[in-house]
Amino acid sequence: MTQTNEPVSPRDAGDSTEPTSTEVPFLVVEDLTVRFPTADGLVQAVSGLSYRVEQGRTLGIVGESGSGKSVSSLAVMGLHEAKRTQMSGSIRVGGTEIIGLSNDRMRRIRGREVAMIFQDPLTALHPFHKVGSQISEAYRVHHDVSKAKARTKAIEMLDRVGIPQARTRVDDYPHQFSGGMRQRAMIAMALVNDPSLIIADEPTTALDVTVQAQILDLLQELQKDFNSAIIIITHDLGVVAEMADEVMVMYAGRAVEFGTTRQILTHPEMPYTWGLLSSIPDVTADPNARLIPIRGNPPSLLRPPSGCPFHPRCDHKDKVPGNLCSTTLPELTTAQHAEGGHVKRCHLPDPSAIYEQEILPEIAPDLVEMTVNDEFPIETGTGLVEDSTSDVALPKER
Amino acid sequence: MFGYIVRRLISGVLVLIAVSMMVFAIFFYGPNDPALAYCPESRCTPARLANISHNLGLDRPAPQQYVEYMSGLVKNRHIESGAISIDCNWPCLGVSFKYRVSVFDYLWERFPATLSVAVGGAIFFLTIGLSSGIFAARRRGTPADKAVVGASLFISAPPYYLLALLSYLYLVQAWGIFPETGYFSPFTDGPAKWVSGMLLPWIMIGIVYSTQYARFSRGAMIDSLNEDYVRTARAKGLVERSVVRRHALRAAIVPVVTLFGLDFAYLVVGTVFTEKIFGIQGMGLAGLDAVQRTDLPMVSAYTLIGAAFIVGANILVDILYSVIDPRVRLS
Question: Cα-atom radius of gyration of chain B, to the nearest Å?
């Protein structure tokens, strides 16, 4: 990763420094708000979210369950049921505004311009249809070709994602595949229409640790070939470190910190990001050492906390003068270590000093070092290990 | 797959043999002496009864008689008793006490009427039930959904025979909206007459049976519409019709098939209420009639045929499962 990249900056109301990229970003999300009316009230799943993703780049979206990371990307796919969802703001995919787009026009974008890889390939693939026919179905929706041609395409894609004997495995059912192969098939299905943007929603969470790294490598390799943009949604900073060019940390439906992967992993300035980094296990440390969790529970999206949504769980709020944290929502402002577009949503006057003195000593050093030294693939406490071919070499299940 | 079907068929045959033994035991050890049926009431002396018993072979050991009874399944039988001499052609399940004809032939003659009711009714209740269930599932929580569920509960509350009887009395007898019901052969009487006689029974079976299919398929569809793979299908950009039919319905149909297999088997064996109320001379009515007249061979044959249909339907459902769900395909 180089420092010359134009950041995919979440735009702030007061931020006038427009990126001067020659290319219009493929995905532009501006002031996106997603709300679900329920019997208990309005769930504010995403509030005022803005970001951009350019062709060939990878954005990592990090956050815990309920932070809005999946909801915002399902919005990009137009997969929220219109009747049960209130959406405002703007999502432009390849220049087309998709909020308020008719079902039929959205359908033509889905799968063709933007494709999605889901978390658990076992449940995301239809158990009753052959793997090959699920892939060729995706192809035929957007291409007017014969079944035979689509089947050839499916075999080609399975082969491309590293399924051995694709010609025979194309007629297998998902339950005859191993977990890693299923996710490969899922990736083949997502890429069959050569989409410009791939959204991978926790693509490795449901997989064995040995398979996770293979899948990530495959995604990176395919990204180079297809020059597609990738949004990778994860709660695993190890995945981010390996995959992402930029990282957006989300909390309670809002972006709370954004920057290049290096900026976020080496100079985080938001206490929530610190918490995420501190809770990563350190493989080199004493095995009996306790992990440092973020205390408290994720906030209610029905009644979000006043002020900064993170303040009830924040250990550093007394360092902010007055009770600013509990009364005023901080704006996204340029970080102290501002290079490129590093922004954070925090009132702390000197987060950099706090990070270096209090947080850094507690963090698993290898993750940070690895990021600084750009050593990939990584071997960290996040459960990523070296490539193994055990998955591919699995005999055909009976 | 083939081995699986063979194994299921063998176990089905074993079940049927067990059923036939039970039926025979009831026939043989039951409180009604079969010989009485051939003994004229006014002149029936114990000696005469014993004679008839001997002529019918009823005094021979039970296993021997069972084997002879079952031999009718593979060859013609000839049943003789004094002045009575009847040829019971294959497949022979005995001779009716009352009509002195092969019970199988008698029931088989009535099978087309019953089958007409069953097939037509099934088409109606599957169409109404599945479409309203899918309709409601896709609009879950809306007034349309609540209307479907409410109507389904409302219709299924009164007993079927009451609704069928009222529909006949009002729609046919009092108001003449529907033509007189009954069975007419679609081949000799013409399809139009066949349909006109069957229409009201079909509609009534259709409406009443459809209620549980509506609720069942609604529940199954709600589950499957929430499945990850349905979201995947949408994410591919499929049109909603394909998403619903090829992805959601395909999974939701599994529990419906189970229900249908048994319902259809019961319908094919004959619905006593439908046949009685709408005056259709089918197998159900013949069975009821046989019970009323203690026509034991008829009752036995009816029971055996019914058991065969239900065992067959179960095997068919199992095979259908494996066709629908590849994970069920056993080696």
Answer: 24
Same domain as B261, residue B126: yes
Q: How far apart are CA A61 and CA A320, in angstroms?
A: 27
- Residue B218's nearest CA partner among B148, B150, B157 is B148
The one-letter amino acid code at B303 reads T
Are B125 and B243 found together in one domain?
yes
The per-residue pLDDT for range A307-319, each reduced to its tens digit, is 999 999 999 988 8
C-beta atoms of B228 and A175 within 8 A: no
- Give the span between the Cα atoms of A181 and A177, in whole angstroms: 6
What's the whole-model pTM score? 0.82
Give A5's DSSP letter. Answer: S
Check residue B327 and give its pLDDT: 87
Within a domain: A289: yes
Q: Give B238's contacts in chain A (Cβ within 8 Å).
A: 107, 111, 137, 141
Q: How far is A92 from chain B (nearest CA, A)?
A: 17
Number of domains comprising chain A: 1
Domain count, chain B: 2
CATH number of the domain where residue A103 is located: 3.40.50.300
How far apart are the CA of A344 and the nearest CA of chain B, in angstroms? 32
A103 touches chain B (CB under 8 A): yes
For residue B57, the enclosing domain spans: 2-101
DSSP A77-135: TT-S-GGG-EEEEEEEETTEE-TT--HHHHHHHBTTTEEEE-S-HHHHS-TTS-HHHHH
Whether the CB of A203 is below 8 Å from some CB of chain B: the reply is no
The boundaries of the domain holding residue A270 are 1-113+195-398
CA-wise closest residue to A227 among A202, A200, A194: A194
Q: How far apart are CA B80 and CA A258, in angstroms?
A: 98
Over chain A (398 residues), what is each successive 10-residue block's mean pLDDT? 42 42 80 94 94 94 90 93 91 93 93 93 94 96 96 95 94 94 94 94 87 90 91 90 93 94 90 88 72 85 92 91 90 80 91 87 64 45 37 40
Looking up tokens 């609720």, which residue turns up? B215
| Residues B169 and B315 both lie in one domain | yes
The answer, yes or no, to whether ipTM is higher than 0.85 is no
Q: Do B324 and A175 touch (CB under 8 A)?
A: no
Amino acid residing at A247:
V
Contact residues for A382 (Cβ-Cβ < 8 A; gap 6+)? A236, A237, A238, A239, A280, A281, A367
Place of tokens 């491309």: A160
Distance CA B61, CA B255 (A): 47
**Is A139 inside a domain boundary?**
no
Asked whether the beta carbons of residue A110 and residue B234 sit closer than 8 angstroms, the reply is: yes
The verdict on A137 touching B (C-beta cutoff 8 Å) is: yes
Last residue of one domain, picked from the residues B54, B81, B101: B101
Which residue in the set A110, A111, A125 is minimally distant from B229, CB to CB? A125
Domain co-membership, B35 together with B115: no
Minimal Cα–Cα distance from A256 to chain B, Å?
Answer: 28
Nearest to A276 by CA among A367, A341, A203: A367
